[in-house]
Amino acid sequence: MKLNNPFVRIMITATVMMAFAACDDTGNLPIFGPDDPGYSSAANENKNDASQDETLAQLQFPKVSGGTSEVIHHSTSDLGLNYSIEWDHALRAQRWTCFTFNASNSTQKWSRNQWYQTSWGKDPFQFDPLVPVKEQPLVTGEFNSSYYPGTSRIYDRGHICASQDRVCSKDANEQTFYMTNMMPQVNAFNAGIWAQMEIILRDRWNRSSFRDVLYVVKGGTIDRESQILSRTKSGFIVPRYFFMALLCKTGSQYKALAFWVEHLNEDHSGDDLSTYVVNIDRLEQLTGIDFFCNLPDDIEKEVESTARSQILRDWNL
User: How many CB atoms sit inside 10 A of residue 121's CB?
Assistant: First the structure.
């Protein structure tokens, strides 16, 4: 699919994004002041430097790595910020994808099946227009011509920000099909335990009775050779582990949970999801990523160090 097709959406300009940054009614940008229920007078020593990009101050963002990495935002004219990725140009892979669930982006106005009713009659997988094409896997012929070690099983184009997580508009859903939002996942994993984690996130925890805003970070391991399973035929990283880090804000209360799961060619869709739960502190040790760094330090310390037993109670697992 050519990127100059009319359905390829135009990115929001920096000026428009500034307008969105001034508001917090969608939960996109936290404003910590005396009138905010999440206000804390404590210092925040590890927050992102948002002097050049105000979006990086939002709560869903981990600490930005810098170096050969770049944070890329995808937005639509009706939704504003859709999701963001940290793309490592040297590794040719994303380190994480982050986004939010809130009232404005949790409605359903589009279905993945509707892509089959378009003139081209297929899902809109395509290159990300904001990343050099040479750094991205081919839309077809890369993952499905590479094999899980020791097997004849090929890889799916595994969404990190799930297509079903962005059905609030055609534009938002389309952006989830960028190849920078894909990581190679064997089908038993992608359609198994990973899908179950996505379902509980979307169907149980993304409800107004449970959250005001749900902040989400997802990804696969790319930085440590011991956490890389293999590489595709053209050298793209296949993560050995995948993770989700979740921060829920309800009124003045915060709670956090993480999933850490091995990328296995086995069907674990019937597993008890509590088996894969760790706290954020532990996930940071495992990944080397500083999650939810924009929280005031006292709140961050409390929610990230919560005992696993308490997490299971807080999240009804």
Answer: 8
Beta strands 69-76 and 213-220 are unpaired
User: Taking the C-alpha atoms of 207, 257, 288 and 91 in order, what is their torsion angle to the nearest 10 degrees?
Assistant: -30
Closest CA to 48 of 254, 304, 259, 289: 289
Predicted confidence pLDDT, tens digits, the chain (317 residues): 433 333 333 333 333 333 333 344 334 434 344 334 344 445 899 999 999 999 999 999 999 999 999 999 999 999 999 999 999 999 999 999 999 999 999 999 999 889 988 877 777 999 999 999 999 999 999 999 999 999 999 999 999 999 999 999 999 999 999 999 999 999 999 999 999 999 999 999 999 999 999 999 999 999 999 999 999 999 999 999 999 999 999 999 999 999 999 999 999 999 999 999 999 999 999 999 999 999 999 999 999 999 999 999 999 99
Say if residues 288 and 224 touch (Cβ distance below 8 Å).
yes
**Distance in angstroms (rounded) separating the CA atoms of residues 183 and 185:** 6
User: Three-class SS of residue 311?
Assistant: helix
Q: Which contiguous run of DSSP H or E holds residue 80?
A: strand 80-88
Q: Residue 246: beta bridge partners?
A: 216, 257
Q: Residue 244: which of 208, 194, 209, 303 has the closest Cα?
A: 194
Query: In Å, how far are 95, 106, 115 from 221, measured between CA atoms?
Result: 7, 28, 31
Asked if residues 97 and 106 have their Cβ atoms less than 8 Å apart, the reply is: no
How far apart CA 94 and CA 86 sit, in angstroms, is 6
Cα distance between residue 214 and residue 249, in whole Å: 6
The helix/strand/coil state of 260 is strand
DSSP state string for 157-171: EEESS-GGG--S-HH
